[in-house]
Design a protein that fits this description.
Elements lengths: L1 E9 L10 E4 L10 E4 L4 E4 L5 E2 L7 E6 L2 E7 L7 E10 L10 E14 L2 E15 L4 E4 L5 E6 L3 H15 L5 H6 L2 H6 L2 E6 L2 E5 L4 E8 L2 E7 H11 L3 H9 L3 E10 L5 E17 L2 E17 L1 H14 L10 H10 L7 H8 L8
Parallel strand pairs: 2-8
Antiparallel strand pairs: 1-8, 2-5, 3-4, 3-6, 6-7, 9-10, 9-19, 10-11, 10-12, 13-14, 14-15, 15-16, 16-17, 17-18, 18-19
Helix pairs in contact: 4-5
Length: 360
C-alpha cells in the first residue's frame, strides 16, 4: 500500500526583510508543526495551525522539517512572500496478513528532542515494540523492553524519566477521529467537526477553530491545538487553578497524527501510521520545548510467545554494552531499512554537541 505525503519544495523570490514564513501544500492548505531551525540546529519555532511562524529572527538560511516530509534548507532571500510549498513524497506501508493470533503487533520508531531556550539539551531515538490483545481489547506496552540511544550533556536520569513520559504520551493507539466520532472528545473537550469541503473538516469548540481533519489517499490526518482544547475545557469546567497555571507557564501543545482508513472510509482500529507531538512551556530553566516523532515501521499478527520473542530480540540490542547509547551506525541502519528520513545536517550538528560520540 502506498501512502502519499508531500515533500518540501521551496518557491523562489521574496523580500529580504521577510521574517514570517508560511508552509503550505500543493493545494495551498496550511501545514502545521513544521520545525524551523537555523543552520546550527537552533530551534526557531514550529508553524501553527495556519502553517505560519511569525519570526525567523533575521536568519537568511533556515531548515524546515516535519516527520512526514523531506527536510529542506531554505535561503529566505529566495522565498516568495515567505511561502514554502510542499510537494508529494511516497511511503510504502504493507498491511499485516490477518491470522488467527492473540496479538496485533506494532513496531514503532521514535525520536525525542528536548530544548531549553531553543538549544537542544537531549536527543533520544529508539524502537518501541507494542501489541494489542485482540481478545481482551487491551494495549500492551512496556517501557524498558525497547532499544534506544540517549544523548545529552548531564542529568541523564532526569531526561530518561522525562522522555519516557513524553514518548508514551506521543504514541497513539486510538485515533483522534475515533474519539471525536465516539463522542468522548465532544463530551470532554466540547469539540466537534464541521465540513469544510470534500473529505475535509474543521474541528471547532464553541469559541474557536482548534484543528483540522482530512481524508486523503486512504488515510485520516488530524491536527489539533491541544492547548486551546484543554484550556477551554478547564475554563468551562471551572478548573481555575489548572487554567491559570497553564496561562502562567505560557503552555502550548499541538499534534498531528495519521491513521489508515478501511474500504468504507472508516478509521482502522490497528491503522496507526505516525504522529508528531509538540509541547512547550516556561519553567525555572527557561522555555522548555519537547518534540516527539513516532512512525510505525512494522505490523504483524502474533501469538503471545512470538511477541515475547520479538521483545527479547529488540531488548538484546539494548545490552549492557550500549547503556542507553545505541551506536549511531545501528540507528541509521534501522532508519535506512525502514525508509525513515535521516536527521537533517542541522539537527545532526546540534546532536553532535551533546553526545560522547564523535559524529562525522
Amino acid at each position: 500500500m502506498r501512502f502519499s505525503i508531500a515533500a518540501l519544495l521551496v518557491l523562489c523570490s521574496a523580500t529580504l526583510s521577510a521574517q514570517r514564513v508560511k508552509v503550505v501544500d500543493a493545494d495551498g492548505n496550511a501545514i502545521a508543526l513544521v520545525a524551523v531551525r537555523t543552520s546550527d540546529g537552533v530551534l526557531l519555532g514550529t508553524t501553527d495551525l495556519n502553517g505560519e511562524l511569525s519570526d525567523i529572527k533575521g536568519n537568511r538560511t533556515i531548515c524546515v522539517s516535519h516527520l512526514a516530509y523531506h527536510p529542506c534548507t531554505v535561503n529566505t532571500d529566495e522565498l516568495r512572500d515567505g511561502t514554502i510549498t510542499m510537494q508529494e513524497r511516497e511511503y510504502d506501508f504493507s498491511e499485516a496478513e490477518v491470522k488467527p493470533r492473540e496479538y496485533f503487533y506494532t513496531e514503532i520508531y521514535y525520536r525525542f528532542y528536548a530544548y531549553v531556550n531553543d538549544s537542544l539539551r537531549c536527543y533520544r531515538a529508539g524502537i518501541l515494540p507494542a501489541a494489542y490483545d485482540i481478545k481482551k481489547k487491551k494495549e500492551i506496552i512496556k517501557f524498558g523492553d525497547y532499544s534506544y540511544a540517549l544523548f545529552n550533556l548531564k542529568d541523564v536520569s532526569w531526561w530518561v524519566v522525562r522522555s519516557d513520559y513524553m514518548i508514551k504520551g506521543g504514541v497513539r493507539y486510538i485515533s483522534g477521529e475515533t474519539l471525536l466520532e465516539g463522542g468522548s472528545w465532544k463530551k470532554r473537550y466540547y469539540i466537534e467537526k464541521v465540513p469544510q469541503g470534500a473529505n475535509r473538516w474543521l474541528i471547532v469548540n464553541p469559541r474557536d477553530t482548534v484543528g483540522t481533519l482530512v481524508h486523503d489517499g486512504g488515510y485520516s490526518t488530524i491536527t489539533l491545538d491541544g492547548a486551546r482544547t484543554q484550556m477551554y475545557e478547564n475554563e468551562v469546567d471551572g478548573e481555575d487553578r489548572k487554567l491559570q497555571r497553564r496561562k502562567d507557564r505560557n503552555y502550548s501543545y499541538s499534534y498531528t497524527e495519521v491513521f489508515r482508513l478501511n474500504d468504507e472510509g472508516e478509521v482502522m482500529r490497528n491503522g496507526y501510521v505516525m504522529s508528531l507531538n509538540h509541547w512547550e512551556h516556561d519553567s525555572s530553566k527557561g522555555r522548555e520545548t519537547y518534540i516527539v516523532e513516532a512512525t510505525v515501521t512494522g505490523t504483524a499478527y502474533m501469538t503471545k510467545d512470538e511477541f515475547n520473542q520479538k521483545r527479547k530480540e529488540l531488548n538484546a540490542l539494548n545490552s549492557t554494552q550500549y547503556m542507553w547509547h545505541m551506536p549511531l551506525a545501528d540507528i541509521e541502519a534501522y532508519e535506512r531499512a525502514h525508509n525513515i528520513a535521516p536527521m537533517t545536517p542541522e539537527v545532526r550538528k546540534a546532536v553532535a554537541t551533546i553526545t560522547r560520540d564523535k559524529w562525522k
